[in-house]
Write a structure and sequence with these properties.
By secondary structure, this protein is an alpha/beta fold. The chain folds into 2 domains: 5-53 and 388-501, Immunoglobulin-like, CATH 2.60.40; 61-386, Glycosidases (TIM Barrel, Alpha-Beta Barrel), CATH 3.20.20.80. Helix content is 29%, strand content 27%. It is built from 13 helices and 27 strands. Strands 1, 2, 17, 18, 19, 20, 21, 22, 25, 26 and 27 form an 11-stranded mixed beta sheet that branches. Strands 3-4-7-8-11-12-13-14 form an 8-stranded parallel β-barrel, surrounded by 5 helices. Strands 5-6 form a two-stranded parallel ribbon. Helix 1 (12-23) runs antiparallel to helix 2. 49% of the residues are buried.
Amino acid sequence: MPRLARSPRPLRAALIACVAAAIAAVAASCGDAARSHQRAASASVTVTQGQVGPAVPAGFLGFSIEYKGLEEYLGTNPAALDTGFLQLLRNLAPEGGSVLRIGGDSTDWSWWPVPGLVRPGGARYDLNARWAAIAKAAASAVRGRLILGLNFEADSGKIAAYEASQLLSHIGSASIDAFELGNEPELYAAFPWYKTSAGVHVPGRKPGYDVQQYLTDFRNVAGALPSNVPLAGPSSGAPTWLAELGSFVSAEPRVSLLTVHAYPTKHCGKAADVTAADLFLPSSLQGLAGQVAGWVRIAAAHHLPLRVDEMNSVSCGGEVGLSNAFAPALWALDMLPQLVQAGAAGVNFHTNPNTTNALLSATSSHGSWQVAAQPEYLGLLAFAQAAPTGSHFLHVSTSVPGLDAWAAQTPGGRVHVVLINVSSAARTAAVAVAGAGSAAATVSRLSAAGLSATSGVTLGGQKISANTGLLSGSPSTATIQQTHGVYPVTVPAASAAILTAG
């Protein structure tokens, strides 16, 4: 997968030239040459007009929430939704087309009560017409579409079919992108689905549940659904299961969207604590994007899109002090261009109220709503602003140690160059942008007190308003003139700079 190049260039050639020039009694001229070489080579970021990968798809960036989370975020009245939360969604896709995935663990904990049928043991949340009206109103308000999970752990075609028919009837097919059967079925045999009155934990499937058994179950449940129901799957995050993605696609011709889950780090069970540094390892960036690119190739071979419809920085509920800190904002800003280049149709960041991974939160008091967002949200917003729908990524090379860089050209012709510094010291780069001419550029910043900061994060000097969900406060940008054909940009430690040219 194309990726920004890191190619440090030593000054040996310049120094040799300097010595030679000194011998020739033109030392002053040599000094100028060495300094120019340093600016252009040893601390440079060069953007050329060569495009890398596909354009940013419509609806690329969205959120994933739990079934119960819909009302916690938006309220219980479909005619008076939480406008601040809707704005948080709209910020990432102001032109519309966003995709909201509703599912996660609660996919298999929810059901639409079937007349005459006993409630399944693991179903603890009831769906109804009011819930569906809220979902429909939310999709309409942001001009988006929904991916809706269907209970699969119950292993009942009747339950899934009734749920799908009711959701279709109350929401309408125009607002539904696909129905996703279940959530992470690779875990059904490992975790209890419910607990009996006697305190016995009952898993969703028997020990040894594997891909082949899953395919049989999927085929049986899918076969009971109405023929007009668009299906998505396998909703898995296990590389061992996703190694069989081709078998899944071949066995399920009704599937119109492949969905996978991807987390760069895991904090499950007795696993060691995750650190901010773990987010910026090659395995958490290029390695994760490479995995997605492999799944995309399988999807493309079957003429299907692939969406990472559940993602965040740390799996298994996240980790206090990291998930809610600034480091994931810089990680997301670095990761998202790579996922576009990998060919993903979209990404949904998972947010769950009242948990460490509550990327977004909303509270209501006497009918008045207030919203908040973890620092990571501003990383998502920075990406959405720098690479809106239809933007193309450009080829970037950098020789600045500790500095990642990417560039995107918007449909309007502007070039945004994003410089990400996760090191403990400031970095200065000479940024050359092909085609920029001699015009000045502007620089805005995504910054905080450090990678561990959980508050005080700003984008362009602004913060998210608790009342409106919009950026508020006085914008802060700087104008930079070219020097010797490049823009000198300093990026403080643990921050990002967005240079706009054109």
